[in-house]
TrEMBL record:
Species: Vitis vinifera
Major localization listed first in the record, in broad terms: cytoplasm
GO molecular function: ADP binding
Designated name of the protein: TIR domain-containing protein
Gene Ontology BP terms: defense response to fungus; positive regulation of programmed cell death; signal transduction
Taxonomic path: Eukaryota, Viridiplantae, Streptophyta, Embryophyta, Tracheophyta
Length: 519
C-alpha cells in the first residue's frame, strides 16, 4: 500500500544540548553594584574569554522584562546572581531571578554572590528583602509568591559571601570556578544526521529520569535489534550530560566484553569519570572497589549500551549505593528479563516508527528530502511495508536504493534479494543467536506456524510438546515476539529471518527443511 501524498511533516531534530550563546548571565541590581563589584567581575570574565551577558540598559526601567533578556537567560550556561541591599526593590531583578531558577531546573548552573547581605535574609526575605516585599501590595499574589520561592531557593545555594576581605580575590575565585565548570562540559556524542521521531521519545524518557530528584535512578531501555535504543541513549546523553559532575557512555558493552574483557571496561569507565587516559587496576575486584570509592560521592551519568548479561551490570554498576546523589544510570539491552533481574527504577520499550515517521526517515536516506521523488511513491510504500517501522532497516534499505532506477527498485523490493536485505538479516540475527537451543526452536515454530494465533491455544500445544512455558516469556522479554489482544505477534523482518534460518539448513531443498510453512 502506497503512503499518503505530501502533507505537513515536522522534522524531528534533536535539540542541541548546549545551545548557549552566552557562558554567563549576570543578574544584579544596578544602583548597588553596577559601577563596582559587578563591573569588575564582568571585565574579569570577559578578559578570561568567558562570553558574559550584562544588561547595561534595562535593569532600571519599569514594566515587564524584555523577551530578549529572557532569551539571554535561556541561552546561558551559567547565571551569576549578585544579591545586594536593594536587590529585592527591583521587580525586574526578581522577574529575572524567577526565570533563572526555572532554567536551573533544566540544567543551568546558578551561582549566588551575597554582596554585603546575609544569605539567610535572602532565603527568609528578612531585612532589606523583607522591607521590599512590604511595598508589593499592588503586585499579583501569584507573582509575589514566585519571587519568594526563587529567593528561598537561590539563597540556599552554595556561593560567595562578600563581607570582608579583598573583593579582587573573591572575583578571581568566582572566575576560576566558572572556568573549571565550562571546561568540564562533556563532549557530545556523534548521532546520525537523520533523526526522526526522537524528540517524542526523549520527552517520554524525561518522566522516567525525574531529573528534579536527588535520588539515584537506574533506567532500562529495551527493544529488538535496530529499533533505535542506542540512538535514543545518545540523545539522552547529549541533552543531560552537562547537568552532572562527570559522565561516561560505554558503547557495545557485550561486544567489548567479548573482545577485551570486563576489566578493560572498568578501566574505561573510571578513565571517563576521572578524565584520565588510563587507570591502572589489576583485577575486576579491585575495579569494583575503585568504582565504588570514586563514584560514591559524585553525581554522574553513566550509559551502558547493549548489555547482554547480568554479570556485566554487576561489575560496572552493582547497585544504587555505588553512586552519588542525583546520579542516573541508563542501560540499553535487547533483553527485558535482564533488566527485571537487575532491578531498574523504570523501563522504556522503544517502539517501531509510525508510518509518517518511517516515510520521512526512508526518504531522507534515499532522496535527502522529507518525501519521495515523483514516481517513487508506490515503490516507497513497498519499502515501508517491508521494513515495518524498524529504523535500522529503513536506513540500510534507503542507502542501498539511493540513486537507483525504478526498475532496480522493483527488482530489489519485489524479489527482496538485495545486499540491503542481507545486511538487515545479519543485524537481526544477533537477537536469535543469543537464545539457547530450545528457545531457538520455539522462535522458529512461532515464525512458521503460530504468528497471529491465540497465545493460550499455542501455550497448550507447546506444553504437549514439552516446551517450557518460560520460553514464550524469554522471547517476549527479548522483544522477539509480543502478545497483543492475546494474539502472538512478530515483526515481519523477524519472521522472514526465521524462514531464512530454516532455508539455510538445506539451501534449495525444502523437502529436507525442519519446518514447512505457507507464507
Amino acid at each position: 500500500m502506497a503512503p499518503k501524498r505530501k502533507r505537513s511533516l515536522t522534522r524531528s531534530t534533536l535539540s542541541p544540548p548546549f545551545p548557549w550563546r552566552w557562558d554567563v548571565f549576570l543578574n544584579f541590581r544596578g544602583e548597588d553594584t553596577r559601577f563596582n563589584f559587578t563591573d569588575h567581575l564582568y571585565k574579569k570574565l570577559r578578559r578570561t574569554g568567558i562570553r558574559t551577558f550584562r544588561d547595561d540598559e534595562g535593569l532600571e526601567r519599569g514594566g515587564e522584562i524584555q523577551p530578549s533578556l529572557l532569551k539571554a537567560i535561556e541561552d546561558s550556561s551559567i547565571s551569576v546572581v549578585v544579591f545586594s541591599k536593594n536587590y529585592a526593590h527591583s521587580k525586574w531583578c526578581l522577574d529575572e531571578l524567577d526565570k533563572i531558577m526555572q532554567s536551573m531546573e533544566k540544567g543551568q548552573l546558578v551561582l549566588p554572590v551575597f554582596y554585603h547581605v546575609d544569605p539567610s535574609d535572602v532565603r527568609k526575605q528578612r531585612g532589606s528583602f523583607g522591607e521590599a516585599f512590604a511595598g508589593y501590595g499592588e503586585v499579583a499574589e501569584e507573582r509575589v509568591q514566585r519571587w519568594k520561592a526563587a529567593l528561598t531557593k537561590a539563597g540556599s545555594l552554595a556561593g560567595w559571601h562578600v563581607e570582608h576581605g579583598y573583593e579582587s580575590q573573591i572575583i578571581k575565585g568566582i572566575v576560576r570556578h566558572i572556568s573549571k565548570k565550562l571546561i568540564s562540559h562533556p563532549e557530545l556524542l556523534t548521532i546520525d544526521d537523520h533523526l526522526v521521531g526522537i524528540n517524542s521519545r526523549l520527552e517520554e524518557m524525561s518522566s522516567l529520569l525525574c531529573m528534579e530528584s536527588n535520588d539515584v535512578r537506574i533506567i532500562g531501555i529495551y527493544g529488538i535489534a535496530g529499533i533505535g535504543k542506542t540512538t535514543l541513549a545518545k540523545g539522552i546523553y547529549n541533552q543531560i550530560a552537562h547537568q552532572f559532575e562527570d559522565a561516561s557512555f560505554l558503547p557495545h558493552v557485550a561486544e567489548a566484553v567479548e573482545r577485551h574483557g570486563l576489566l578493560e571496561l572498568q578501566r574505561q569507565l573510571l578513565a571517563d569519570i576521572l578524565r584520565e587516559n588510563f587507570v591502572h587496576i589489576s583485577n575486576i575486584h579491585e575495579g569494583i572497589s575503585l568504582i565504588k570509592k570514586t563514584l560514591f560521592s559524585r553525581k554522574v551519568l553513566i550509559i551502558l549500551d547493549d548489555v547482554s548479561a547480568l554479570t556485566q551490570l554487576e561489575l560496572l554498576a552493582g547497585s544504587h549505593q555505588w553512586f552519588g546523589s542525583g546520579s542516573r544510570i541508563i542501560i540499553t539491552t535487547r533483553d527485558k528479563h535482564l533488566l527485571d533481574g537487575y532491578g531498574v527504577d523504570g523501563l522504556y520499550e522503544v517502539q517501531k516508527l509510525k508510518v509518517e515517521e518511517a516515510l520521512q526517515l526512508f526518504s531522507l536516506n534515499v532522496f535527502k528530502a522529507d518525501f519521495p521523488d515523483e514516481g517513487f511513491w508506490e515503490l516507497s510504500g513497498h519499502a515501508l511495508n517491508y521494513c515495518d517501522g524498524l529504523p535500522a532497516a529503513l536506513k540500510v534499505l534507503g542507502l542501498f536504493l539511493r540513486g537507483k532506477t525504478e526498475l532496480a527498485w522493483e527488482n530489489a523490493l519485489l524479489k527482496q534479494q538485495t545486499v540491503g536485505d542481507r545486511r538487515i538479516q545479519q543485524m537481526l540475527r544477533v537477537s536469535f543467536d543469543g537464545l539457547d537451543s530450545t528457545e531457538k526452536d520455539l522462535f522458529l515454530d512461532i515464525a512458521c506456524f503460530f504468528r497471529g494465533k491465540d497465545s493460550d491455544s499455542v501455550g497448550r500445544i507447546l506444553d504437549s510438546c514439552n516446551f517450557s512455558a518460560n520460553g514464550m516469556k524469554v522471547l517476549k522479554d527479548r522483544s522477539l515476539i509480543s502478545i497483543l489482544d492475546n494474539k502472538i505477534e512478530m515483526h515481519d523482518l523477524m519472521q522472514k529471518m526465521g524462514w531464512e534460518i530454516i532455508k539455510e539448513e538445506f539451501p534449495g531443498r525444502p523437502g529436507k527443511w525442519s519446518r514447512l510453512w505457507n507464507p
